[in-house]
Structures are given as structure tokens and as C-alpha cells.
Amino acid sequence: MTERAGRSWWFAAWALFGVLLLGASQACSHYRTPSDKLRESVMDYNNAMRWRNWEAAARYVPEDRRDDFMARKDGQGDRMRVTDFEVRDVRHDSRAKRAFVIVEFAWHRYPSLTMERTRLRQEWDFLGGRSGWVLRDQTEIEIEEESDDPTQMF
Question: Pick from 72, 36, 32: which is nearest to 52 by CA?
């Protein structure tokens, strides 16, 4: 083998190694932990609710309740509008594959433009596989009024 052919082979081997290494690193970068998937699911579901995208939101409802969910949402009409939401707290128990999320919504009901706030406690279960996280239950919880008095902040 000539010196030039030897260098070409060596270069080709290193180039192939580089391509394989890059491919492997890209494959690993797409792995998401259950916590990552929880964050994505919570944001996707609540964003879908905000924008009235019932089909997207229904993907996070257990299969046996999706038809009922869609019927209720379709029956609501255009009376209520969510203008914003904020995830206030997340408690994730990885062993139990369960999470509790506090979400606060700002909304109004037509024709009124008076803004209301509602805080919900959402219970999420991790089913794994393609199902991922599903919203098992949500209940309204009381919003404790925050004090504007600076002496009460500490």
C-alpha cells in the first residue's frame, strides 16, 4: 500500500468515526426523562386549553374519558375565554409515577370583560410508552390573597 493510499484510508476511517459519534450524540440528545415529559405535557395541555384547541388537550385526558371531555368542551360554545395561565407549583413523585401541579388561569366570560382568576390542582399520572403523562383529575382550589403590605413579606 502506498503512503498516499494509507493516509486516505486513515482519513476515511476517522471521518466515519466522526459521523458515527455525531449520530450517536444526536440520538442521545432526544432522550427525555419523565420530568421533561411532564413539563412538556403540562404546558401543552394548559396551552391547548387556553387556545381552545380541544383535540390537542384531549390527548392528555385518559382514553376512556376523551369522548366525554370533547362533548363537554363542544357544548360550552364561545362563552368563556382563557387569557393566560401560570404553572405555580409542581410536585413530582418519580417512584409513584404521579405529579401534582398547581395552575392558575386568568379568564373572562362573554359578554363581560371582568377578569377572573381560578387556581386548579391537577393530578398527572405517568403511563409510560406513547401515552406518557395523562391528566387524571383536576379540582379548583382556593386562591389565598397575597398581601400588598411590605411588612408581611417576611
Answer: 72
Domain ranges of the chain: 32-143
Q: Are 92 and 35 in contact (CB under 8 A)?
A: yes
Closest CA to 129 of 54, 45, 59, 34: 34
Q: Which fold has domain 32-143?
A: Nuclear Transport Factor 2; Chain: A, (3.10.450)
- The answer to whether residues 90 and 121 touch, using CB atoms and an 8 Å cutoff, is no
How many Å apart are CA 88 and CA 121, to the nearest integer?
10
- 152 CA to centre of own chain: 34
- Look up the pTM and report it: 0.72
End-to-end CA distance of the chain, in Å?
79
User: How does residue 151 score in pLDDT terms, banded at 50, 70 and 90?
Assistant: low
87: β partners: 103
Nearest Cα residue to 43 out of 103, 108, 116: 103
In the chain, what percentage of residues exceed pLDDT 90?
Answer: 53
Hey, is 154 helix, strand or coil?
coil
